[in-house]
Design brief:
Serine Threonine Protein Phosphatase 5, Tetratricopeptide repeat; 406 residues; 5-stranded mixed beta sheet; Glutaredoxin; alpha+beta; 14 helices; globular
Length: 406
């Protein structure tokens, strides 16, 4: 089984902090935070109208011109980036851009986008509100362990008939339905809950789901033993979807062999165009995927690419860990990077290694350090206890030690 090469560079001791706020950032880390963003390479570059060898030239950009990267795109000349340079927009090849690290780091922060945050917050809120209910606790446990369909079955057959006017039980049913990819049913449950007891948290997630229902055209379904792939057949042919499903199965088999995921329910995976993905999730334009109980990945126009497989693997690791319990974010992100082959760049790793405490997530720059710090912490864990040791920890989340880089 191949996986990212392990880091052998010396690192300084680190300790866990509750929130990562207030730490002193060493000189190298501070310099990293101040590093310039993406810019046009030395010698300048031609901004083009599309990612094609015969695309019209929009403008000639000067060396060092600051760029705002919108998203990546695979065309007939390889990977291009849609960029903005002042008031001009167009495409550049990767080789024509310096400083792509922050954009690529941003792509790795998909699981921290708004919808997953809302889902996590809703699970926590319902656990607090329904804490005295053992039956509801069982349904929440199923949701948290990535078994939403079983949770929905339990709620609808055993719990909801006796508590039809309970707004919290209805909100719980909505959550289970949403993660089961029954979006319309989820919206109906949340609407019923709001009619009984207005709640700003439920209202917020309900409005997001209404937006999703209007924008989502991915209604075609294709199934394997492990996945239910949902896609828009106007954008993706059946044979192409079948290849994506094969790739999902391959990545799951590799990761399951390494980690022992034990996922029992089929995982819903939704592939969408960049436009549909952005409209539904509200994610930043650099985001290439997320896990909100379902795997969502941006569809590459050229079909399966290494970027597609990396995105699949990253989100499958999140699904795998979710099935086995509640893990800290550093463990989730470090493992997802390791097993998707998504290793941070050397400068960011070195800066993260010098931190005395776990970095926060209050800015994009801090998040870059957090992801590198998480990668190092997981790498160190593998160095200390080996593959089987980490596999055993996945069966026992409460046994995962505090992250350490020493």
């Amino acid at each position: 089984m191949s996986h990212p090469a392990e880091s052998r560079q010396p690192v300084k001791p680190g300790s866990r902090s509750a929130d990562g706020v207030g730490e002193v950032i060493p000189f190298l880390a501070a310099m990293l935070l101040l590093a310039p963003g993406p810019a046009v390479r030395q010698g300048g570059a031609a901004l083009r109208a599309s990612c094609s060898s015969d695309a019209e030239k929009v403008a000639q950009l000067d060396e060092g011109a600051a760029l705002k990267i919108r998203f990546a795109f695979s065309g007939d000349i390889g990977t291009c980036y849609k960029v903005e340079a002042g008031d001009r927009a167009g495409y550049l090849r990767a080789a024509e851009i310096d400083g792509l690290e922050e954009y690529e780091r941003g792509r790795r922060m998909a699981s921290d986008q708004e919808i997953p945050q809302m889902i996590r917050a809703e699970v926590g809120r319902l656990r607090t509100e329904m804490g005295s209910s053992q039956s509801a606790g069982g349904a929440l446990q199923l949701i948290e362990s990535n078994q939403p369909r079983e949770a929905l079955r339990m709620i609808e057959t055993s719990l909801l008939p006796a508590a039809r006017r309970d707004p919290y039980m209805l909100a719980l049913a909505g959550l289970a339905a949403y993660q089961s990819d029954e979006t319309k049913r989820a919206a109906d449950y949340w609407a019923e809950s709001l009619a009984i007891r207005p709640d700003p948290d439920v209202e917020r997630i309900y409005q997001r789901v209404q937006k999703e229902l209007k924008a989502d055209t991915s209604r075609e379904r294709l199934s394997s033993t492990r996945f239910l792939l949902r896609f828009d057949n106007a954008e993706l042919s059946g044979p192409a979807a079948s290849k994506l499903l094969d790739a999902l199965d391959d990545e799951y088999a590799r990761i399951d062999l390494a980690l022992g995921c034990g996922i029992q329910e089929k995982i819903t995976a939704i592939v969408q165009t960049r436009e549909a993905y952005s409209a539904i999730t509200g994610a930043a334009e650099w985001s290439g995927g997320m896990f909100d109980g379902r795997i969502r990945v941006v569809m590459e126009p050229s079909g399966i690419t290494p970027r597609t497989r990396t995105a699949f693997a990253h989100e499958i690791v999140h699904a795998c860990l979710a099935r086995n319990g509640r893990f800290d974010r550093w463990f989730h992100e470090g493992m997802a990077q390791r097993w998707s082959g998504d290793r941070p760049d050397a400068a960011t790793l070195q800066a993260a290694a010098e931190l005395k405490k776990e970095p926060g997530l209050s800015s994009t720059q801090q998040a870059r350090l957090f992801y590198a710090w998480s990668w190092l912490a997981v790498d160190r864990l593998y160095s200390r206890i080996g593959d089987q040791g980490v596999r055993n920890l996945i069966r026992s989340p409460q046994s995962v030690p505090a992250p350490s880089l020493n």
